[in-house]
Amino acid sequence: MLLNLINNPYSSPMQSQEYPEDIDLQKYWLILKRHWLPATLVWLLAIGAAVYAAFSIEEEYAAYGKLRLKKQNAISALVTDAGEKIGTLDSLNMQDSPLDTEAEVLRSSPIIKQTIESLNLTTDEGELVNYEDFVSKLGVKGIPGTDVLTISYTSTDPQEAGDIVNTLIEVYIKNNLLVNRAEAVSAREFISEKLPKTERELLKAEEDMRRFKEKNNIIDLQQESTLAVQTIEQLDSQIEATQTQIEKLMARTVEVKNKLGLSSAEAINRSALSESDSVQQVLSKLHEVEDQLAIQRTVFVDLSPEVRILENQKVALEQLLQDRVSQVARSQNISQSDFSLGEIEKGLAEQLVSSEAEIEGLRKQLESLYAIHAEQQQRAKILPQLEQTQRELERKVEAAQATYTTLVDRLQQVQIAENQNVGNAQIVSPAIISQYPVSTSKKIVVAMGIIVGGVLYVIVSFVLELLDRSIKTSKELRNIFNSYTLLGMIPNSKKKKVSFPGKRLESVIPEHQAIKDPHSIISEAYRMLQANLKFISPDHELNFIVVTSAVSQEGKSTISANLAAAMSQVGSRVLLIDADLHHPQQHHIWNLTNEVGLSDVIVNKVELNSAIKRISYNLDVLPSGVIPPNSLALLESKRMNSLMKDLRAIYDFIIVDTSPLLLVADALTLGKKSDGILLVARPKVIDSVSAIAAKDLLTKSGQKVLGLVTNGVVVENEPDSYFHYAKSYFKNDTNVTYLQNEDCLQSHL
Residue 124's Cα: distance from chain center in Å? Predict the structure, then answer.
């Protein structure tokens, strides 16, 4: 990600795309070279710190001892563990070793402080060594695959290191014995306290079980469940048989009733009357009186005493018969014809009465069977619940019994362990002192300091590169202005400094290399720019161009002056106009006066011919003149348009040097009047923010940009520049060339 930002600092990291050509080792070398001063300071500081640390190191010796931890005697496990093991060293999770816990116990404050006090370890001031200093020299780690801990200690005194390791092991073993014995005592007290309560819980569970069985009449619920199912099946069979028998008897009763023509009650009454002697005697006597009365009525009239006596006897006998019948029969509405039955009728009546009696008995038996069946079903329904309750009670009894038995057994074991010196630590090897120092070598420390310093050198260089938003190379400029054609790359050249009147600071004044040193690489670069401008628009010949830059100090005035000189050298009549009405430079470049110029011509103070200065046969310069209060008003005036029209007719090529784009609007105004804008950009002067802003401004204003010229290119910083191949080609006697061109310039001036 860091390299991506260095390669392309104007794109977001998420949008960057890596290509093989992005790996530019020479570019990274230039970054390291560019920020060498702060990075070197950091590197030297790292080396100095390493050297100081190396000479501060004292030789230290180490002593090593080994301690084995056996898997036994975790006494507290006796309270709950039901297995044969008394205790184990187990880890809390799969990632940890059980030895890690014991290692932390060895590093614990009580054991460390006891060791310090036992050996009376003191500092140079006579105070006891503190816990932090002691632990910083102590090493405790487990050997993988074993139950052995390695204990080490480093000290400038080898004998002291050995004594500390041995004492630390002894203190740990003694503490281990005390801890185990204390655990045994604590376990015994705990068991002794819990045992009576557990016994009471066992007795209570057994009492609850007994009461439950007595309350629910339980002997064996499993057997009772089996018998209940069998009993219900038998009752179902009996009920079905009884219902069948009742149906048969009822059918026979209906048949007898049909034959007899009587109901069962009537049959019973008639049978009872026919068998009653008192009723039959009265009935017989009544029949005799009725016979006599019939005879007497044939002899006497109804009012005769004989007839009346017999009628009174008849009434008395009927009343007596009725009384006798009411005593014997259930029904009072019985005629005399019902007082006697035949033998067949008597037999049918007896069958009818017997059947109904039998039916009644079977019905009562059926009701009894239904009641028993319901009771059995109700019992069968609650049997699962009773079984569940019984199982719960049994589990409580079993749990209480198991807990009670375990506690009794553990109490005996703890009492035995309490009287023994049982520990789970054993010395495998006492302290062994190393024969050679274990402290880091001074050479290694210094070497590490050099390596770390080198890494910091690289980090500081790249961090400073990221913080510096200025554009360093021509390649970065082309990446930003990728929509513009690169028309030329002008190498960096020497500049002279002159003092302006009334100013303390010196301004940098570029030289006109195209005239002063026509055979140099820089002059050829300007001629290459002039040729590219000529061929950039084959259909429309350029006549009037505006030269500008995004910010100041990018060399637009230098480019304008040298480009004008290069064009004049190929036979074109060229006019160079200094339209930078804020900070004009052309009169300094050409050693001219700026008393009159463009601003004076526009306001008609002077004639155009008086303002234009002749430099050579084909090169004229129009200085800026007096700096006006409102330059934009002059450049947008009709007089300026008329002036440009007149100058186009006179000169083959007009170059206008204007103000920077982002500072004033002069360049945009003149750009609309010209054939196009030539944009100058200089690495290390312009930053990415200004470059992007200038590009957006040109795009939004609809300017025609002829192309891009990168100025002040440092050949050593441009790995992809073609200037590397021009060094040998342009080797010449620069002093002779300089003198020849200086004489030529003076003759022109």
Answer: 52
Q: Scanning the structure block, which residue is given the tokens 């390649």?
A: 475
- State the Cα–Cα distance between residues 204 and 120, nearest whole angstrom: 61
Which tokens hold the place of 726? 């021009």
Kindly state whether residues 557 and 589 are assigned to the same domain: yes
Could you give the 3-state DSSP secondary structure of residue 408? helix
Look up residue 614 and give its amino acid: R
Count CB neighbours of 612 within 10 A: 22
Per the structure, the complete domain to which residue 9 belongs is given by 1-33
Q: What is the 3-state secondary structure (H, E, C) of 153-198?
A: EEECCHHHHHHHHHHHHHHHHHHHHHHHHHHHHHHHHHHHHHHHHH
- How many angstroms separate the CA atoms of 325 and 278, rounded? 9
Q: What are the φ/ψ torsions at residue 355 (nearest 5 degrees)?
A: -65, -45
Q: State the pLDDT at residue 260.
A: 64
Other Cβ atoms within 10 Å of 541 Cβ, number: 10
* Within-domain flag for 371: no
Q: What is the pLDDT of residues 369-379, one digit of tens each?
A: 888 888 777 77
Question: In this structure, what token pair is assigned to residue 35?
Answer: 């920020």
Record the pTM.
Answer: 0.46
> What are the beta bridge partners of residue 427?
67
CB 490 within 8 A of CB 555: yes
- What is the maximal distance between C-alpha atoms in the chain? 210
Cα–Cα distance between 109 and 104 in angstroms, integer?
A: 10
Write out the two tokens for 723. Answer: 């200037």
Question: What are the distances in angstroms from CA 474 to CA 201, 480, 490, 685, 709?
Answer: 94, 10, 10, 12, 9
Residue 396 lies in a domain: no
Strands 613-614 and 496-499: unpaired
What is the tens place of the pLDDT at every residue in 458-490? 888 778 777 776 777 778 888 888 888 888 888
**Partners of 432 in beta bridges:** 64
Strands of 619-622's sheet in order across: 486-491, 705-713, 677-681, 544-549, 653-657, 574-578, 619-622, 613-614
Q: Which amino acid is present at 48? A: G
Q: Return all residues near 454 (Cβ < 8 A) that are at least 6 apart.
A: 43
Residue ranges in the chain whose pLDDT is less than 70 = 1-24, 26-27, 30, 57, 71-98, 221, 259-280, 321, 324-350, 417-423, 439-442, 469, 493-519, 538-539, 715-749
Q: Which residues contact 654 (CB under 8 A, 6 or more apart)?
A: 543, 544, 545, 574, 575, 577, 644, 647, 648
Query: Quick one: pLDDT at residue 686?
Result: 87
Q: Which residues contact 333 (CB under 8 A, 6 or more apart)?
A: none
Query: Is there a single domain that holds both residue 644 and residue 626?
Result: yes
For residues 451 and 491, membership in a common domain is answered with no
- Whole-number Å distance between alpha carbons of 635 and 601: 11
pLDDT of residue 497: 46
> Are residues 617 and 537 part of one domain?
yes
CA nearest to 172, candidates 129, 110, 121: 110
pLDDT for the residue numbered 687:
84
The total of structural domains in the chain comes to: 4
pLDDT score, position 91: 47
> Are residues 542 and 642 both part of a single domain?
yes
Q: Is residue 732 assigned to a domain?
A: yes
Is residue 145 located within the same domain as residue 102? yes
Query: What is the reported pLDDT for 507?
Result: 41
Residue position matching structure tokens 């200037």: 723
Give me the DSSP letters along 411-467: HHHHHHHHTS---SEEEEEEEEE-SS--SPPHHHHHHHHHHHHHHHHHHHHHHHHHH
pLDDT at site 563: 92
Which parts of 123-218 are beta strand (E)? 138-142, 148-155
For the chain, the first-to-last Cα distance in angstroms comes to 57
260 touches 267 (CB < 8 A): yes
The first and second tokens of residue 84, run together, are 């044969």
3-state secondary structure of 635: helix
* Same-domain check for residues 152 and 94: yes
Structural domain contains residue 1:
yes
